[in-house]
């Protein structure tokens, strides 16, 4: 329990990190540093995208699986670490 | 035959309602069959008809009604809370969250994911992984382009008695005109009826020359004035210099007086860089270089005798065949001679001795072409005998680069004005060689056979794409080279300059070595001269006796080693005492092995 806290805190304190969220498969934010509506929005959209990416990877090679998803946009980078039930989402402003 | 039924009606009955009633069938016409027509028919036997025995089928099309689909998104403002949790109630949600956080799965999952996530975050922080790092490095373009050159046009000498096209000059501005000097260079073999005319050709019209220049003696060389494209200077076979103005017509505008002109054909005439644009100089095999001002052609303004011993004596002079002048270096000029020596001169020097700066010798025969590299003027190309050589001003004893000895005499050469590493040469077997020493040094990059007779002259146009070559029968061929040979390649300037520097350096090292060796030899000769001649003979006798003794010693030891069979052979050999020293050593060697 404490390690979880520590891990999440560490992640949040990294340079450039704007927000961290842990969301479950139903879209309920378990832990978040942003406001509720943003979190729920991210959760809903990213869940679908992750599912799609996962199925794509598995379609190409059934032995393969998605480990990480990174979306780099003009403003920042969204990193999604998927799990069976949960999603860890971090929004970071990468160093230019 | 018409079948007609007629009926009559009163006019007052028109428009009345029709009353239809049945009537018995009436026979209108009865046409009996005509047996005579039977004759026109033939009974067919057998008869071919198709029949089919299958079940009847029918075809129907059915289209279902379209299933309407629509994709919609729902913007959730709240997650999918389980039924028992009321999302509005903060207490309940917190309780739910706490429950999840206690879940074993959750903890493991977060640890796992956190690890991966941290890696990526750190990666992001460390470097910009999407940045362009190797922007400056351009892809190395290997030009796979096949080098080629094709003939665009051929200009033939319209006269019956063919003369050699000895010199070509491109029009300075438009490059659309080519001036060709025709003459016969074979000594005293020129036909009596040979015409003296030279032509200016327009590239568009190969059938008829644009302008015919009529000198009093055939022209060996002809040059356009780079400043004024209407003026041309020509060097005649009899040694005179003639000047034309194309606006004034085809007769000579100015002609030098025969007393003060050259005594031999003028092989080189070039325009000089001057404010008035009227100065030129000429060189001939009589060993003189003369400077002229075309406004006053009766006398040369200056004369220089190509005497390498720097005394200005005409008898020792070397005949000049090629002349070189680079507008960027107006005080220097170079002369290529019949004897295979290139003389570099300084015009501005006060005394005759100083005028001749240095000489470069290396060719076995007359130097037919001499040109500085347009990009690196310190290096120049000479063409003569069977090779083309590249020299550097710094290395005076030998050339820095040279081609192999060809089967045919090389008659003319020129650098490409666009590429520092490319030059062209023509040979007596009618081939044009295009050399690119950044690409290949042992062979020409491209070798084309232009015509069957010998090629005598070559001139490249300023854009480097076109080159004209003149042959012995007066045929001028215009060639276009592929773009790879006339566009500056990437890094070519650097590569060419590094090649030049490297070769110059190598030559310098060799020169230094030679000098050292020469000094050593000089020293040795001096020491030897001190010993008298008589001693030399005695030395030889002693040497002979010594070697004989040594020889027999060796034999004896060998014999002892090998036994009696050898004894017999050696005793025979030993009997022939007067054998040459070399045979002795050979025998020694044999026996030793």
What do these coordinates show?
The complex is a heterodimer of chains A (96) and B (593). Chain A has one domain: Dynein light chain 2a, cytoplasmic (Beta-Lactamase). The mean pLDDT of chain A is 88. Chain A has 2 helices and 5 strands. Chain A is globular. By secondary structure, chain A is of the alpha+beta class. Chain B has a domain at 149-489: YVTN repeat-like/Quinoprotein amine dehydrogenase (Methylamine Dehydrogenase, Chain H). Chain B is 23% helix and 26% strand. The longest helix of chain B is centred in the C-terminal third of the chain and has 39 residues, at 492-530. Chain B is extended and about 160 Å long. In chain B, 31% of the residues are buried. The model of chain B has no long low-confidence stretch (mean pLDDT 82). The interface between A and B is large, with 44 and 33 residues. Chain A: Belongs to the GAMAD family. Chain A: Residues 4-92 form the Roadblock/LAMTOR2 domain. Chain A: GO terms for molecular function: dynein intermediate chain binding.
Task: Report Rg of chain B.
Answer: 50 Å
Mean pLDDT across all residues of chain B, rounded? Answer: 82
Do you know the CATH topology of the domain at 149-489 in chain B?
Methylamine Dehydrogenase, Chain H
Question: Average pLDDT across residues of chain A?
Answer: 88
The largest β sheet of chain A comes out as: 5 strands, antiparallel
Alpha-carbon distance between the two ends of chain A: 35 Å
Number of strands of chain B: 28
Judging by the overall fold, what is the CATH architecture of chain A?
2-Layer Sandwich
**Largest interface: which pair?**
A-B, 44 and 33 residues
Count every helix of chain A, treating DSSP H or I runs of 4 or more residues as helices: 2
Q: Would you identify the CATH H-level superfamily of chain A?
A: Dynein light chain 2a, cytoplasmic
Structural class by helix and strand composition of chain B: alpha+beta
The profile of the biggest β sheet of chain B is: 4 strands, antiparallel
């Amino acid at each position: 329990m404490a390690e979880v806290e520590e891990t999440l805190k560490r992640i949040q304190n990294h340079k450039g990190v704007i927000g961290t969220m842990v969301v479950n498969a139903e879209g309920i934010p378990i832990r978040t540093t942003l406001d509720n509506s943003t979190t729920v929005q991210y959760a809903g959209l990213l869940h679908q995208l992750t599912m799609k990416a996962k199925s794509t990877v598995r379609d190409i090679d059934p032995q393969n699986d998605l480990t990480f998803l990174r979306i780099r946009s003009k403003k920042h980078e969204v990193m999604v670490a998927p799990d069976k039930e949960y999603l860890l989402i971090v929004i970071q402003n990468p160093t230019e | 035959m018409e079948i007609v039924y007629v009926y009559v009606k009163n006019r007052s009955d028109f428009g009345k309602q029709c009353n239809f009633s049945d009537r018995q069938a009436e026979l209108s016409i009865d046409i009996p069959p005509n047996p005579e027509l039977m004759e026109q028919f033939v009974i067919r036997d057998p008869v071919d008809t198709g029949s089919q025995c299958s079940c009847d089928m029918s075809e129907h099309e059915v289209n279902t009604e379209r299933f309407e689909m629509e994709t919609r998104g729902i913007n959730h403002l709240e997650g999918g809370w389980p039924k028992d949790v009321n999302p509005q109630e903060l207490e309940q949600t917190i309780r739910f969250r706490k429950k999840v956080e206690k879940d074993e799965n959750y903890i493991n999952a977060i640890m796992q994911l956190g690890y991966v996530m941290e890696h990526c975050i750190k990666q992001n922080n460390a470097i910009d992984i999407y940045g362009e790092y190797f922007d400056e490095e351009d892809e190395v373009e290997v030009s796979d382009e096949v080098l080629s050159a094709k003939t665009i046009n051929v200009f033939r000498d319209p006269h019956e008695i063919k003369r050699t096209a000895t010199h070509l000059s491109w029009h300075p501005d438009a490059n659309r005109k080519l001036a060709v000097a025709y003459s016969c260079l074979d000594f005293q073999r020129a036909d009596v009826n040979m015409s003296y005319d030279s032509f200016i050709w327009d590239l568009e019209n190969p059938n008829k020359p644009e302008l015919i220049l009529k000198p009093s003696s055939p022209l060996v060389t002809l040059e356009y004035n780079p400043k004024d494209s209407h003026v041309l200077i020509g060097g005649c076979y009899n040694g005179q210099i003639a000047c034309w103005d194309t606006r004034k017509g085809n007769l000579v505008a100015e002609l030098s007086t025969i007393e003060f002109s050259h005594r031999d054909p003028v092989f080189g005439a070039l325009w000089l860089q001057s404010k008035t644009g009227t100065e030129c100089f000429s060189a001939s095999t009589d060993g003189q270089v003369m400077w002229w001002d075309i406004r006053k052609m009766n006398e040369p303004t200056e004369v220089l005798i190509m005497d390498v011993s720097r005394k200005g004596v005409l008898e020792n002079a070397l005949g000049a065949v090629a002349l070189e002048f680079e507008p960027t270096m107006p005080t220097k000029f170079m002369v290529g001679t019949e004897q295979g020596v290139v003389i570099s001169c300084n015009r501005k020097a006060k005394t005759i001795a100083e005028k001749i700066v240095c000489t470069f010798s290396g060719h076995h025969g007359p130097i037919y072409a001499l040109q500085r590299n347009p990009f690196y003027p310190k290096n120049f190309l000479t063409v003569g005998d069977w090779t083309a050589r590249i020299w550097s001003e710094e290395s005076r004893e030998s050339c820095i680069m040279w081609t192999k000895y060809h089967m045919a005499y090389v008659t003319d050469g020129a650098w490409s004005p666009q590429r520092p590493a490319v030059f062209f040469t023509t040979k007596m077997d009618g081939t044009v060689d295009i050399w690119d020493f950044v690409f290949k040094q042992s062979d020409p990059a491209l070798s084309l056979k232009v015509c069957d007779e010998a090629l005598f002259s070559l001139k490249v146009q300023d854009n480097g794409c076109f080159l004209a070559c003149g042959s012995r029968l007066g045929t001028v061929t215009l060639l276009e080279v592929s773009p790879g040979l006339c566009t500056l390649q990437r890094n070519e300037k650097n590569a060419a300059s590094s090649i030049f520097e490297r070769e110059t350096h190598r030559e310098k090292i060799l020169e230094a070595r030679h000098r050292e060796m020469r000094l050593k030899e000089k020293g040795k000769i001096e020491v030897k001269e001190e010993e008298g001649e008589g001693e030399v003979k005695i030395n030889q006798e002693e040497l002979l006796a010594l070697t004989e003794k040594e020889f027999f010693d060796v034999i004896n030891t060998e014999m002892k080693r090998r036994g009696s069979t050898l004894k017999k052979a050696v005793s025979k050999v030993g009997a022939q005492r007067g054998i040459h020293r070399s045979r002795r050593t050979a025998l020694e060697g044999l026996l030793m092995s």
